[in-house]
Amino acid sequence: MDKYTKFANAWKTVGVSSKVRWQQRSVDERLSTGLARKLVARFGDEAKAALAEVALQIGLDDGRKICENLRIDPESPRASLIPLETVSLLSGVDYEVTGDNKARQFPHITIKSGGCVLGKVFEGIDPDIREHICESYTLGLVRAVNKDADVKALRKCCAGNSQCELVVSFK
After folding, report:
1. End-to-end CA distance of the chain
2. How confident is the model at residue 140 (pLDDT cuts 50, 70, 90)?
3. Is there a contact between 154 and 72 (Cβ–Cβ < 8 Å)?
4. Is residue 104 situated within a structural domain?
5. Burial of 54 (C-beta count, 10 Å sphere; 0-12/13-18/19+)
6. How far apart (Å, rounded) are the C-alpha atoms in residues 81 and 26?
7. pLDDT tens for residues 42-72?
8. pLDDT at position 8
9. 8 A C-beta contact, residue 164 and residue 115
10. Tell me, what CATH number does 158's domain have?
11. Which domain holds residue 56?
12. What's the DSSP call for residue 157?
């Protein structure tokens, strides 16, 4: 084993590579938050709309990846929630399906979460901006399974509530 390999292995055993990855994520999060703040300060509603479009696309991409990895059957209305539930669980946010009304003409499912999925990512950002980003990202996750689904937020953490409550409706 050459000296470079020994050096790399020695640093790997003390966890430097994981610390560097953590630091990189921290820089990425701070950069995203700062960039969003500056864009909205300079361009106002146009920047909010652009951030919402980007969040929707990221939600769609993340939802599709989750669907592929978990082999989700898109026929069930409950399947539309699996990407959202997966992201919530990976973020450490409690998640509960509290209602499933299939008797109506347009079925819907009510969801309560114990916190904001993106709360830690955009911690220092204006709640109004975070609200637009979160709603669009959530819509993207749900529409990755069912393109006709719609999401309406009844309660929002970014609006000062202790939990988010969403209604996902299907056409």
Report:
1. 62
2. very high
3. no
4. yes
5. middle
6. 28
7. 998 899 899 899 999 999 999 999 988 888 8
8. 57
9. yes
10. 3.30.1380.20
11. 43-169
12. G
